[in-house]
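Table 4 source record.
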Amino acid sequence: MNTAAMFGIPDYEFRVVFGRTCIDYGINKEASNRKKHKYSLQSAVYILESIIFPFGCSRPYAVSNPYSKNGETRHMHMSVDDVGSVVLMVTTMRNNETIRVISYRPASEVEKLQFKELTGYIETNKKTDKE
């Protein structure tokens, strides 16, 4: 199985080393993300782990082509949270095999339509309380 192709990531951008790869976020960024988007970056870690290590969990998933911002390569990932809402996560890869979550938020209406076109997923569950 070509995992990089499955995620739509060029081989040169994709690295997973079992036993070393982890997903994290900055604690200061956690506070600002909660304030701005009302979502915890820890929830993004959970979703990304369930996508990368899909043992018993299957979520629709889409990832952007890499782009550069602030001198680093980033990716936008769209998936579905535990209540069925489409969410968007932004990540970068650190040199120590760490996937760093930069942002996690609800997908916009335009992004939801793009996600539907890419995956066929239609959001039916609406959140009443945000995390």
